Amino acid sequence: MDKTTRFNDEVMRHLDAAYNLARWLAHDAHEAEDVVQEAVLRAFKFFDGFRGSDAKVWLLAIVRNTFYTQRASASAHGLTDEFDESVHGGIDDAALPEAVVARAADAECLLAAMQRLPPEFREVLILRELEECSYKEIAAITKVNIGTVMSRLARARDRLHRDLTDTTKEARNHAL
Amino acid sequence: MLCKEAQGLVHAWLDDELDPARSLEMARHLDGCTACDQDLQRHAALKQALKSTLPYHAAPAALRTRLAAQLPREAQQRARRIAWNWAATSAALAAMLVIAIGVAGLLASRMQVLRADRLVADAVSSHVRSLIADHLIDVRSTDQHTVKPWFDGKLDFSPEVRDLGAQQFELVGGRLDVFDGARVAALVYRRRLHVVSLFEWPAAPSTNSGLIEDVRDGYFMLRWTDAGMHYAAVSNLNRDELNVFAHAFRNAAPARPAGED
C-alpha cells in the first residue's frame, strides 16, 4: 500500500476532528482552513515517522501546534487580541442556576461565552465535549500531564459558568 | 469522603474518569451531601448544554477536495522520481539490501526506545494520577503477607512483595494498574512524606537486567528485570534515595508464605 493510501486510511478520516478543533481555536473559517491545510501537509511529510496507534491524537496535536505557531508569528506582528483577565475575572458565587442553565442552552450566549475563553480553556472543552477524548488523550494532544488537564477542565467550566452568570445578570438589569 | 475532596473530583466524576473505588466513594458522598450534589448538578447541566448546543464544525467539502488533490501529487512525484532512477537503482540494489538489513536493526532498536518511552510515560502518569486522585491503594496493609495474597485472582502472575522496613521504606499497600492494556501490580512504599510506586509485570522467564534510569516531569524512575519480572519504581525521591530503594528491594528476601518464617 502506498503512503497516500495509508495516510488517507489512517489520518484523513480524522479530518473533521482536525477542522473542528481548528475552527474552535481560530477566529474564522478562513484561518481554520489555513491551519488544517498546513497541519495535514505537515502530517503527511512526517507520516513515515509515525509509529503510534492513535492517528487522531497525533493529527490533533499537529493541528494545535500549527495553530499556536501561526498565532505566535501573527502576534509578533501585533495581530492578535489578547484575553483580558481584568474584564472577565472576578468570582461571583451568587449563581442563578436556572437562569444560567437557560442562558447556556441559548446557543448565541454560549457561543459568545466560549469565544471569550482563552484558547487553552476552549480547547480542553472542545476535546472533551465534542471530540469525547479521554483525559489521557487530551494530555497527549495538549502536551501537558493529566493533572493539568483535570484542573484546566475545572477552571474552564467554572469560568464559563461565571461568564454566563454575569451576562444573565446584565440581561436582567437591562430588563428592569 | 470530605466535601473538599469531592469538589476536587467532581469533574473527573462527570467525565467518567474515576476508578471504580473512587466512583463508589463519590456516589456515597453525593447521596448524603446536598451542597456537593447541587454543585454536581450545576456542572452537569453546563456540560449537557455544551454537548447539545455547541456546533460541531465538519471539514468543508472544498477543503477536503483541495487536500485530496495536493496529497497524491506528492506521491506521484515520488513515483516519477523512482521510475526515472530505476536503471541506476537496480545496480545499487545489492548495496541497498545490505543497508536495509542494518536499517532494520536500527529500526528495531528505535522501536524498543519508543516502547520504553511509552512505558516511562505510563508509569509516571499512573503514579501522578494516583496521587492526584488520592487513589494510592486498593489494599491497605503494612504486612507483605496481606498484600501479596490480595493480588491473587486479580492478576495472572504473582507479584514480589518485600518488606523493606529495615531500610526505612514502609510498605503501605498495593493496587492494580494498567499499562498499555495489560494489568500490572503496583506496590506503594513510603519514606517520610515521599511515595514510591513500584510496578511489576512478568518478563520472559529468568531474564535479568541492570538498573535503567529515566526522568520525566520531575519524577525519577528506575527500571530493572529480576528473575523474569519487570520492575519500575517511580517517585519524587531524589536519585540517590530511589537508588537505595531499588537496591534494597533487589536484595531483600522474597516473601515466603506466612507461617514459614
UniProtKB/TrEMBL annotation, chain A:
Annotated organism of origin: Dokdonella soli
NCBIfam families for this protein: sigma70-ECF
InterPro entries listed in its UniProt record: RNA_pol_sigma-70-like (IPR039425), RNA_pol_sigma-70_dom (IPR014284), RNA_pol_sigma70_r2 (IPR007627), RNA_pol_sigma70_r4_t2 (IPR013249), RNA_pol_sigma_r2 (IPR013325), RNA_pol_sigma_r3/r4-like (IPR013324), WH-like_DNA-bd_sf (IPR036388)
RNA polymerase sigma-70 region domain: residues covered: 11-74
Keywords for this protein: Sigma factor, Transcription, Transcription regulation
Top-level taxonomic group: Bacteria
Membrane among keywords: no
UniProt xrefs under Pfam families: Sigma70_r2, Sigma70_r4_2
The protein's name in its UniProt record: Sigma-70 family RNA polymerase sigma factor
The keyword Cell membrane appears for this protein: no
Protein family according to the UniProt entry: Belongs to the sigma-70 factor family. ECF subfamily.
Residue span, RNA polymerase sigma factor 70 region 4 type domain: 108-160
Coiled-coil portions: none
Automatic annotation (TrEMBL), chain B:
Superkingdom of the organism of origin: Bacteria
Keywords, comma-separated and alphabetical: Membrane, Transmembrane, Transmembrane helix
Descriptive protein name: Anti-sigma factor
Transmembrane intervals: 83-108
Pfam families linked to this entry: zf-HC2 (PF13490)
InterPro entries, A to Z: Anti_sigma_zinc_sf (IPR041916), Znf_put (IPR027383)
Record keyword Transmembrane helix present: yes
Record's keyword annotation contains S-adenosyl-L-methionine: no
Domain Putative zinc-finger: 3-36
